UniProtKB/TrEMBL annotation, chain A:
Residues 168-439 form the MHD domain. Pfam families: Adap_comp_sub, Clat_adaptor_s. This is MHD domain-containing protein. It comes from the Eukaryota. GO terms for molecular function: lipid binding. InterPro entries: Adaptor_comp_med_subunit (IPR050431), AP2_Mu_C_sf (IPR036168), AP2_Mu_N (IPR043532), AP_mu_sigma_su (IPR022775), Clathrin_mu (IPR001392), Clathrin_mu_CS (IPR018240), Longin-like_dom_sf (IPR011012), MHD (IPR028565). Keywords: Cell membrane, Coated pit, Endocytosis, Lipid-binding, Membrane, Protein transport, Transport. GO terms for cellular component: clathrin adaptor complex; clathrin-coated pit; plasma membrane. Its main location: membrane. It is a peripheral membrane protein. It comes from Manduca sexta (Tobacco hawkmoth).
From TrEMBL, chain B:
It is a peripheral membrane protein. This is AP-1 complex subunit beta-1 isoform X2. The lineage of its organism: Eukaryota, Metazoa, Ecdysozoa, Arthropoda, Hexapoda. One of its GO terms (cellular component) is endomembrane system. Pfam families: Adaptin_N (PF01602), Alpha_adaptinC2 (PF02883), B2-adapt-app_C (PF09066). Residues 618-727 form the Clathrin adaptor alpha/beta/gamma-adaptin appendage Ig-like subdomain domain. Belongs to the adaptor complexes large subunit family. It comes from Bombyx mandarina. Keywords: Acetylation, Membrane, Protein transport, Transport.
Length: 440, 847
């Protein structure tokens, strides 16, 4: 298992060092600094083996986080755990930065002692950790309270404590989708997929049991068949019956969801943690409505001039508005000047990024606009061709490009006197750009 | 805070130990469970032997604490204690307590107990797991799996992967209960579940529905892992690489997800490329090629090189695409980017080898780039191309000559290629290249320090000077085909790595022993094989003779596959030799072979002839098979021998009764090797007090039934008095056939193909003689020595033999001069034969 954990700043100075096993010597800290942080080349692998000791590292905002081991550990688990530590730290003191880590080092050591025991990850749920690892002075808790803490840390529903009360039972659902696209210059979709997640904020009293329904193809078809049996209607294709369905390639759930129930009945039922959490993640590849299309036209006029024309088309209901639109058109390294004309929004050549950045605040559906640029180039003697990185874009639209729909979210709390109707529910759909690229 | 200070100072400061120990023991009794747990946790960190003794009592109490938080901490503490003093854990009964925790009501306690047990098992001094998992425990674990934290699920799944279910049904049910885990958000849970499933899929037969549904269910979660953080993606990709090699079907339709993204980290890009090549097939080749071409213009040098190489591999793997690959490569060569050109030339060489006489038209383009090449591999490839197609390149001699100028500065690889290329050129165009060849030969033989180069030079020189025709045959011989798949892992290693999915071993693609020190490396894991499982179930059945589905099924099917050639039609010698024993041994009684008896003189002659021509194989001394008191006066001593390709049963009958015995007949029960008598028992009447010899030729394709031990033979002898039953053991070596010699290469590949689980070791004692004399002895008994090697003073003999039922057995005999003990390793697809083969070895060596 994990033998030790080190945190370094970008210079390679050790901020946190916690050794769990004595097969990790004190020189391990230096070995990583010398061989990885100070290495000349770019990092070629997140796992490094130095003298029979393996180092797993992740780097976030100038901070290196490294786990060390001498055993054949579960590598996926180590990385997941490192990511989890970052999560936990963020929820305790915000951004991961050198200063924050230095200011909170006592807390971090305390956390590391609790979530790793002899190198074995223990309960790392922030909600639960916050109940007994605090930055304030320790009140002497009563016996019942202590027992409650321990039963909760180890309990079956480790993510929720009992006795939560709200005057107003409310829940918020955000369906967040990231559209990833790779398009050829000719407009052919090379690959496209949507990575979506459902983030839930729950402010519910007691231990409510929730049931979540979506327009998943498998469920809808099964339902269609069920109805068909009763009404004698054999037309079970939900697509034809008018309701759009989404074909989910794969989905993953927060640990509160009962997976075995999903496997057998395809129903998503769970007791939610209090506050915000990610209920599910999913991935779809079929029938994605791509909100925007970029049509590039690049012409090299001689050796010192280039002409670029980019057409941007929005492809969704005219009544909806796309926001935060940004198109990034890369330019060669030897660009000396750029003249820009755009019909809508603002465009600027940013020499530091080697790109033309074109920003549009809002754009309605089914519209078209364009930008043309003349790029002047310095004459160079380097033979190496400019590799033309793809044009990338960012946006935000108020619908789910995959067609994902929330059908219901029912709340049952048998012990307390509120019913499903009393809960105020909010649902919001947001489609954002993931890696949305068009080759040019 | 006290604890934090304590933990950091204790390991380095042994001075003040009394105070903390006392405090800790006291704290273990505290009313607050958090304090109790913290005390236990801290205790484990004190690595001073004397103190640990005081801590056993509190730990024992904490393992039974009413609070689950304390119990789960105590469980891990047992693992800590084992690390400090393994004997104490074993002696104090902590293992049993830990095992009890597996049935704890709290899932987290179960998970930590599993983790601790797994660690202890792997680290156990004996190398054998100290606590075996059994079906009820597994059941408990599967129940806890649904309820514990993500990390706990990982511990449990990893522990499950070490368990081998008893039969396919159990495997089936475990699979079903684990599949839901594939939808977990934590990549480690998903990968560990994949590991268990991949392992169990080996156990259920390949055509069942389960395997196909599992294959279908495995694909989406694996693909989803690619949208995780890059570091997790990297681990996932390394593992997908293994999965794709083991079961290519699972991801064959998912090519697109492995397309490289512009801002992927380089390590993710390289891994994706690797998998793309493995998944490339005729269906998706167009897309793949388009992508690869795109990658070849990227910035990172390593990545571009790999992409170019990948194009070449596609050409070799998917034949219809070769044309397009070659034209893509040509386009890339036109870019004149140095490393792209060099890499392209290296792969074009392979394409030429795969498709000779097809794309030679591009040679001229290649030659244009000759002077830009500066890497040895590219230069060597170019030289090879020039030599291979010397007859088509008009200025081949000039080109090669230009290389020769700086001959001594070249890398050895290039030098060797140059030498060969010039010789090829000379053989193809002898007229105008004589000078050149002489020049290169003298360069290679006189001015070079490299022994390889010198030797090759001399060989060519002698070949050319003695027999140019032979030289032509040797140098211009047809080359063996190159394989389609490159960089495949060795099957045994792959199987081992599949058992380590998600772990570091799978990331490095190395077995744990390669990077873990000492005992932590654990026992070598291997995939369960269907055969072994079937055998295990069969032994649990109450009937003595297992049903045909078990091992015998295998034996049988092999038999059907190719029956051994019937013994050669009895030649003269055979007949003579056959009769000989009778003549020598018995004398008056009617001989087995009619031809032998009248021609007494020629029989003797045959004897001499047979002996001198082929020294007989080892015949074990006769044993008493049927003592007189059990045979109502009939005593039988017997043995087995093999003569002229036929096994025989030799018996001496002695009549110790008061009356003559007549009407002898013999019958053999069905047995493992299908041995049955050819012809009847040629024994006439045996008078009171007299004796008779009989030799019974045996054939080996009779009905088969598994016996225990395998070489057991049940015999029934009938005479005028009664029917007598007895059992004897057939020495295995009489069943070794004459055609048991394997080709060296076949031997090598077969040895590699047979999984490590099918290897058995045995120590032979009282070995006398040298390796050569032993090898000779073995050959007489149809054990053929394929190769002999001397490694660090030890003689290694590689031997093969074939049983009459077409089971091949490969052996490695390690001899140490002066040491009477020798190690024998045996590999065979049916390891069950090992025991009797070892017995045969013992007997032959001692003979």
């Amino acid at each position: 298992m994990i033998g030790g954990l080190f945190v370094y700043n970008h210079k390679g100075e050790v901020l946190i060092s916690r050794v769990y096993r004595d097969d990790i010597g004190r020189n391990a800290v230096d070995a990583f600094r010398v061989n990885v942080i100070h290495a000349r080349q770019q990092v070629r692998s997140p796992v490094t083996n130095i003298a029979r000791t393996s180092f797993f590292h992740i780097k976030r905002a100038n901070i290196w986080l490294a786990a060390v081991t001498k055993q054949n550990v579960n590598a996926a688990m180590v990385f997941e755990f490192l990511l989890k530590i970052i999560d936990v730290m963020q929820s305790y003191f915000g951004k991961i930065s050198e200063e924050n880590i230095k200011n909170n080092f006592v807390l971090i050591y305390e956390l590391l002692d609790e979530i790793l025991d002899f190198g074995y990850p223990q309960n790392s749920d922030t909600g639960v950790l916050k109940t007994f690892i605090t930055q304030q002075g320790i009140k002497s808790a009563s016996k019942e309270e202590q027992a409650q803490i321990t039963s909760q840390v180890t309990g079956q529903i480790g993510w929720r404590r009992e006795g939560i009360k709200y005057r107003r039972n409310e829940l918020f659902l955000d369906v967040l989708e990231y559209v990833n696209l790779l398009m050829s210059p000719q407009g052919q979709v090379l690959s496209a997929h949507v990575a979506g997640k459902v983030v839930m904020k729950s402010y519910l009293s007691g231990m409510p049991e929730c049931k979540f329904g979506i327009n998943d193809k498998i469920v809808m078809e099964a339902k269609g068949k069920g109805n068909g049996g009763i009404s004698g209607n054999t037309d079970s294709d939900p697509a034809r019956s008018g309701k759009p369905v989404v074909v989910i390639d794969d989905c993953q759930f927060h640990q509160c969801v009962k997976l075995s129930k999903f496997e057998t009945e395809h129903s998503i039922s769970f007791i939610p943690p209090d506050g915000e959490f990610e209920l599910m993640r999913y991935r779809t590849t079929k029938d994605i409505s791509l909100p925007f299309r970029v049509i590039p036209l690049v012409r090299e006029v001689g050796r010192t001039k280039m002409e670029v024309k980019v057409v941007l088309k929005s492809n969704f209901k005219p009544s909806l508005l796309g926001q935060k639109i940004e198109v990034k058109i890369p330019t060669p390294l030897n660009t000396s000047g750029v003249q820009l004309i755009c019909l809508k929004g603002k465009a600027k050549y940013k020499a530091s990024e080697n790109a033309i950045v074109w920003k549009i605040k809002r754009m309605a559906g089914m519209k078209e606009t364009q930008l043309s640029a003349e790029i002047e180039l310095l004459e160079t003697d380097t033979k190496k061709k400019w590799t033309r990185p793809p044009i990338s874009m960012g946006f935000e639209v108020p619908f789910a490009p995959s067609g994902f729909k929330v059908r219901y979210l029912k709340v049952f709390e048998p012990k307390l006197n509120y019913s499903d109707h009393d809960v105020i529910k909010w649902v919001r759909y947001i489609g954002r750009s993931g890696l949305y690229e068009t080759r040019c | 805070m006290f604890f934090v200070v304590l933990m950091s100072s204790i390991p380095y400061n042994n001075g003040w130990k009394d105070l903390p120990t006392y405090q800790l023991v006291k704290d273990c009794e505290d009313s607050n469970p958090l304090i109790r747990a913290l005390a236990v946790r801290t205790m484990g960190c004190i690595r001073v032997d004397k103190i640990t003794e005081y801590l056993c009592e509190p730990l024992r109490k904490c393992l039974k604490d009413e609070d689950p938080y304390v119990r789960k901490t105590a469980a891990v503490c047992v693992a800590k204690l084992y690390d400090i003093s393994s004997s104490m854990v074993e002696d104090q009964g902590f293992l049993d307590q830990l095992k009890d925790l597996l049935s704890d009501s709290n899932p987290m306690v179960v998970a930590n107990a599993v983790a601790a047990l797994s660690e202890i098992n792997e680290a156990s001094v004996s190398g054998r797991p100290l606590v075996e998992m059994n079906a009820p425990t597994i059941n408990k674990l599967l129940t806890a799996l649904n309820e514990c934290t993500e990390w706990g699920q990982v511990f449990i799944l990893d522990a499950l992967s070490n368990y081998s279910p008893r039969d396919a049904r159990e495997a089936h049910s475990i699979c079903e209960r684990i599949t839901p885990r594939l939808a977990h958000a934590n990549a480690a849970v998903v990968l560990s579940a994949v590991k268990v499933l991949m392992k169990l899929m080996e156990m259920v037969s390949a055509d069942t529905e389960l395997v196909s549904t599992l294959s279908r269910k495995l694909a989406p979660p694996l693909v989803t892992l690619l949208s995780a953080e890059p570091e997790v993606q990297y681990v996932a990709l390394r593992n997908i690489n293994l999965v794709v090699q083991k079961r290519p079907d699972i991801l064959k339709h998912e090519m697109k997800v492995f397309f490289v993204k512009y801002n992927d980290p380089i390590y993710v890009k390289l891994e994706k490329l690797d998998i793309m090549i493995r998944l490339a097939s005729q269906a998706n080749i167009a897309q793949v090629l388009g992508e690869l071409k795109e990658y070849a213009t990227e910035v990172d040098v390593d990545f571009v090189r790999k992409a170019v190489r990948a194009i070449g591999r596609c050409a070799i793997k998917v034949e219809p695409s070769a044309e397009r690959c070659v034209s893509t490569l040509l386009e890339l060569i036109q870019t004149k980017v140095n490393y792209v050109v060099q890499e392209a030339i290296v792969v074009i060489k392979d394409i030429f080898r795969k498709y000779p006489n097809k794309y030679e038209s591009i040679i001229s383009t290649l030659c244009e780039n000759l002077d830009t090449l500066d890497e040895p591999e590219a230069r060597a490839s170019m030289v090879w191309i020039v030599g291979e197609y010397a007859e088509r390149i008009d200025n081949a001699d000039e080109l090669l000559d230009s290389f020769l100028e700086g001959f001594h500065d070249e890398n050895a690889q290039v030098q060797l290629q140059l030498l060969t290329a010039v010789v090829k050129l000379f053989l193809k165009r002898p007229a105008d290249t004589q000078e050149l060849v002489q020049h290169v030969l003298s360069l290679a033989t006189q001015d070079s320090d490299n022994p390889d180069l010198r030797d090759r030079g001399f060989i060519y020189w002698r070949l050319l000077s003695t027999d140019p025709a032979a030289a032509k045959e040797v140098v211009l011989a047809d080359k063996p085909l190159i394989s389609e798949e490159t960089d495949l892992l060795e099957p045994t290693l792959l199987d081992e790595l599949i058992c380590h999915i998600s772990s570091l071993a799978s990331v490095y693609h190395k077995p744990p022993t390669a990077f873990v020190e000492g005992r932590g490396a654990g026992v070598r894991k291997s995939l369960p094989s269907r055969g072994v499982v079937a055998e295990e179930t069969s032994t649990q059945q109450p009937t003595v003779i297992p049903n045909q589905e078990s091992l015998i099924g295998d034996l049988l099917s092999m038999d059907i596959g190719g029956p051994p050639p019937a013994p050669a039609p009895s030649s003269n010698v055979d007949l003579l030799a056959g009769g000989l024993d009778v003549l020598l041994g018995g004398g008056p009684e009617p001989g087995a072979s009619a031809a032998a008896v009248p021609g007494g003189a020629s029989g003797l002659l045959g004897d001499i002839f047979a002996v001198s021509a082929a020294p007989a194989s080892y015949v074990p001394p006769k044993q008493c098979w049927l003592p007189a008191d059990k045979g109502k006066g009939l005593e039988i001593w017997g043995t087995f021998s093999r003569q002229n390709g036929q096994p025989r049963m030799e018996m001496t009958f002695t009549n110790k009764a008061m009356q003559p015995m007549t009407g002898f007949a013999i019958q053999l029960n069905k047995n493992s090797f299908g041995v049955y008598p050819v012809g009847g028992l040629a024994v006439g009447a045996v008078g009171a007090g007299a004796g008779a010899e009989a030799a019974l030729p045996l054939a080996t394709h009779g009905p088969v039934q598994r016996m225990d031990p395998l070489n057991n033979l049940q015999v029934a002898i009938k005479n005028n008095i009664d029917v007598f039953y007895f059992a004897c053991l057939i020495p295995a070596h009489i069943l070794f056939t004459e055609d048991g010699q394997l080709d060296k290469r076949v031997f090598l590949t077969t040895w590699k193909e047979i999984p490590a689980a099918n290897e058995v070791q045995h120590t032979l004692s009282n070995v006398v003689g040298t390796a050569d004399s032993i090898a000779q002895k073995m050959t007489l008994n149809n054990i053929f020595t394929i190769a002999k090697r001397n490694v660090e003073g030890q003689d290694m003999l590689y031997q093969s033999l074939k049983l009459t039922n077409n089971i091949w057995v490969l052996l490695e005999l390690k001899l140490q001069p002066g040491n009477p003990e020798a190690t024998l390793s045996l590999k065979s697809r049916t390891v069950e034969v090992a025991t009797c083969i070892f017995q045969a070895y013992e007997a032959i060596i001692k003979s």
